[in-house]
């Protein structure tokens, strides 16, 4: 049986919470933002329903506040050093890069432990060593390999342009495959690290699926680009030809407007192509990853994702328009609409009432890594 996830939050209702959070955060110079984060999390978790029960969020505001203060202190130090001591700021950035895998791991574990369903907490047990492998060492090794291949192609290109071209092409192909491999390993790290009480999630993520999906995305982008270029030539080609042969200058024939409109249309077209392609890839990969997830102890339980490219792109475009038109004040509705859509395309397979789970008492006293990861936009997951 499939248990559809439902979200019952309302935009107007959450707007009141969001607006009060915003005002109090401004009045208290950001101190209340820790309480605002907890209230927001509790609202969204508490309105997410699965098989008649709701999720809950257990972090304490004081945990968030302590972590946020440390994170802001680090950001302030880096900003001052960047302005006054550029060399020192580079050193701090290097230290941050070295700490990034640990931050991602700690952030994921904190968020998981603070989440519960039916009074049973989630957990994340992925190792710090694996985090450094997938987020730092393997990407670094891949980058070095690709750089070496490009240097070899440059050396060969000096004596044979054809040989250099072939090696360059092989280097790009190698880079593409390695990118897909690292992406699959990152997804596998998260999938196999989550636990729900005594039950552990597992899934085998295949690199081939990533290669196929990204290749399909590349083909889609190429076709859309060709259509856009062909349409542009059909619409503006005659106008440019007429202007160039008129002998009266571009401005005298309204050519300035035509040129500006053509450039503007091209920018919009490329943005839409990027949006459609990224939506296609994101939806395909999410559906694939969720289809591979099951509970290790019993295979009858799993996750289902029915996200579509059309639905995701429509959501992204409409949310963007809402934010622009409302000058940002529609953000509560955007957040609620996003949560409703994600819930509507997600389900849990299996009889949850028959699932026997033993809960653990999990403590997470520090949210420093969580706030540092958020400050530098390191929140990574499986969607």
From TrEMBL:
Give the keywords, sorted: Membrane, Transmembrane, Transmembrane helix
| InterPro entries on file | DUF898
| One protein family per Pfam | DUF898
Q: Keyword DNA repair: yes or no?
A: no
User: Does the keyword field hold Transmembrane?
Assistant: yes
Which residues are listed as membrane-spanning?
A: 15-35, 69-85, 91-110, 131-156, 162-182, 218-240, 260-281, 312-334
Query: What protein is this chain from?
Result: YjgN family protein
What species is given as this protein's source? Answer: Photobacterium sanguinicancri
């Amino acid at each position: 049986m499939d248990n559809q996830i439902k979200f019952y939050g309302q935009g107007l209702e959450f707007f009141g919470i969001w607006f009060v959070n915003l005002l109090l955060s401004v009045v208290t110079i950001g101190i209340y933002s820790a309480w605002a984060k907890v209230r927001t999390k509790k609202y969204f978790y508490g309105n997410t329903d699965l098989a008649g029960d709701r999720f809950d969020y257990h972090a304490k505001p004081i945990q968030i506040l302590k972590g946020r203060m440390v994170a802001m202190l680090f950001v302030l130090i880096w900003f001052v050093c960047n302005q006054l001591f550029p060399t020192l700021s580079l050193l701090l950035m290097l230290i941050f890069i070295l700490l990034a895998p640990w931050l991602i791991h700690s952030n994921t574990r904190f968020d998981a432990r603070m989440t519960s369903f039916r009074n049973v907490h989630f957990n994340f047990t992925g190792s710090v060593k694996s985090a450094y492998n997938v987020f730092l060492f393997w990407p670094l090794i891949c980058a070095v390999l690709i750089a070496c291949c490009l240097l070899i192609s440059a050396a060969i290109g000096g004596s044979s342009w054809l040989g250099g071209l072939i090696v360059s092409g092989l280097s790009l192909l190698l880079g593409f495959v390695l990118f897909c491999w690292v992406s699959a390993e990152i997804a596998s790290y998260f999938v196999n690290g989550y636990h729900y009480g005594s039950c552990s999630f597992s899934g085998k993520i295949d690199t081939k699926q990533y290669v196929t999906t990204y290749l399909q995305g590349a083909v889609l982008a190429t076709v859309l680009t060709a259509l856009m270029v062909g349409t542009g030539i059909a619409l503006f080609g005659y106008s440019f030809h007429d202007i160039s042969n008129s002998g009266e200058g571009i401005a005298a024939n309204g050519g300035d407007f035509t040129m500006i409109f053509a450039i503007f249309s091209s920018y919009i077209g490329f943005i839409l192509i990027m949006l459609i392609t990224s939506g296609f890839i994101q939806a395909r990969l999410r559906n694939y990853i969720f289809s591979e997830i099951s509970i290790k102890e019993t295979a009858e339980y799993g996750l289902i994702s029915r996200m579509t490219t059309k639905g995701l792109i429509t959501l992204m475009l409409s949310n963007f328009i809402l934010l622009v038109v409302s000058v940002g004040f529609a953000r509560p509705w955007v957040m609620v609409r996003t949560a409703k859509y994600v819930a509507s395309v997600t389900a849990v397979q299996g009889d949850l009432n028959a699932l026997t789970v033993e809960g653990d008492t999990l403590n997470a006293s520090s949210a420093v890594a969580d706030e540092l990861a958020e400050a530098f936009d390191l929140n990574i997951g499986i969607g």
